[in-house]
Amino acid sequence: MGELKKVGVVGAGMMGAEIALSFAQAGYDVTLKDATLELAQRGKDRLGGVLDKSIKKGKLEGDKKEPILSRITPTDQYEPFKDVDLVEEAVFEDFEVKRQVFKELDKVCKPDCIFATNTSSIPITRLATSVEKGRIGQFIGAHFFSPASVMKLVEVIPGLETKEETVVFMMDCIQKIGKNPIRVKDVCGFVVNRILHAMWIEANRLLEEGVATPEDIDTGCKLGLGHPIGPYALMDLTGNDLNLQVQQILYEAYGERFKPRPILKQKVDAKHLGRKTKRGWYVY
Ligand SMILES: NC(=O)c1ccc[n+]([C@@H]2O[C@H](COP(=O)([O-])OP(=O)(O)OC[C@H]3O[C@@H](n4cnc5c(N)ncnc54)[C@H](O)[C@@H]3O)[C@@H](O)[C@H]2O)c1
User: Fold this and answer.
1) How much distance in Å is there from the Cα of 140 to the middle of ligand 1?
2) pTM for the complete prediction?
3) b/e burial code for range 170-206 (CB count within 10 A of at least 16 → b)
4) Distance, CA 94 to ligand 1 centroid (Å)?
5) CATH numbers and ranges of domains, the chain
6) Which segments of 26-155 does DSSP mark as H helices, in order?
7) Per-residue pLDDT tens digits for 5-38
């Protein structure tokens, strides 16, 4: 297994662009691909604003911004992936779309390149079948959290046929970019989403029973549990449509304990999706 020098990221959306930034901030050259050059460039352009915020908060020196951004090269081609040591895939959460991306990467990437996916809900073992047999041992999950350039946790998820040296390599890469990896088995929801959604479903039960308001439940979690943000403020950030979709997947996997509450379905029906529609559990 080679040393990490160059990184490729596919998907320059909300997650992919900031994952690219995390590697660039740690000094790595990153190729950032999207379906079109315009989308890839737009993903990179958003990162200027992310770095400006860090500068404003005093977390980054102003003269570091341009050198960091210059390490990220947007593209709509697979060809520049031929000499990367690690690829992180962050395209739409759709098995067929991801499978096609991995098939293309498998054709151009060098034999020892590691393939990682940011999927939140598709089994790593199933996605790994997208690549030729010889590379299956180098296929792994590396699940970042939003906003990926800020959040320190990455769940590292070996599939059934992932080699141990791939796990070690991936854990090491995550540490090299200043983040904290945790090793997790390939189960639906991994660790953090299972805990998060169990809590959100319970919060919605409390709300349905009229036990407390969203504001007071948020205050309870912040001041009583030390959470930096309450469940309702966080649900509004991630979006209730996505929250419902994830709970439906967890419900299919684990049954009754993850059954989405009617109040969440009603919010989605009403298009109270959260910050993106200016109304969710709160009005913005
Ligand atoms: N949003 C989150 O909070 C979050 C957290 C953890 C993991 N994830 C996972 O990360 C992945 C990406 O999520 P996101 O929120 O960034 O989505 P997004 O919709 O913001 O971005 C996806 C990007 O992939 C691009 N894309 C689609 N097909 C492509 C292709 N064939 N080639 C190249 N680019 C392509 C799209 O144009 C888009 O820019 C998903 O698997 C999601 O489950 C999301």
Assistant:
1) 17
2) 0.95
3) bbebbeebebebeebebebbbbebbebbbebbebbeb
4) 9
5) 6-183 (3.40.50.720), 193-277 (1.10.1040.10)
6) 37-56, 65-70, 95-108, 124-127
7) 999 999 999 999 999 999 999 999 999 999 999 9
